[in-house]
Amino acid sequence: MKTTRQLLIGGLLLAAFILNGCSSDSSSDETTPQQTNANRNRTTEYSEAARMEMPRLKDSGTILLVHKTSDRVDPDGVNFSVEWDYEKKSQRWTAYQMTRRAAESHTSRYYGDPQYPMDPDLPRSYYLDNDYYWGSGFDHGHICPSADRLYSAEANYQTFFLTNMQPQYKNFNGSGNSGGVWLTMENKVRQWTPKNTSDTLYIVKGGTIDRVYLEGGAEDGVLQRIDGKLIVPKYFFVALLYKNNTGYRGLALWFPHNNEVHGYDALTDYALSIDELEARTGIDFFCNLPDDIEGQVERALPLSAWGL
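RE: above sequence
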């Protein structure tokens, strides 16, 4: 059986935690019959679409790749998931969980040939005819970072798949010896990794490949195309949902993608509510939360709860 399965599928400061008495079992993500959840993902064909980190899947034009490992660090064996737009031949987002076990380090960073392999379960016709990153001046920008997946060699290797990459400027990514705002964010997210085994941090990251909707109106979310083919996002985003035994809290981050040195900016400069991120991207994050909880969490911007 393949380890990656597929499915075609189309501020005010508020309380840090919401919904007292929420279950502390991090693997128990199903809603009860009393909880309304009108926008949850359909699971008739693909049960992992119900996982809490999953955004609402597009109805057409995309394929869902769920990468699994044999180490069972995740109860379902899931490493991370990618929604791949096979018409634009670009990823829309990567979603994954951080837990205490997932943050353990038992291996080193993958080095191999090729350094950035093709995803073995992505139909070849759904990708470009070449790896256009090389010689472009853009980095292979990890969306799920290698450093977030050091619990096994298999998990770390999968983070180097081209489906988990987006082109990033060096000074944005952090490889240009300037800190890199993306690297700053990654390090901070790792600091937020739960210390208790019953807690979970759900993460969605990506770059814009569709239209975005800002105060000035709609604009193209694509900065450029390398060789007229590989999309370079104009913005990058992060959506976070933290769950513990007292409830949930949420946070979103929005980064203009440029080659300026912003590596040591405060992340508060980029923070916004999940509701605002949804309005900008058109992506419905954490759609598998019951509607009442989702509404409260996504409207809130509890910066102090995140130490910001």
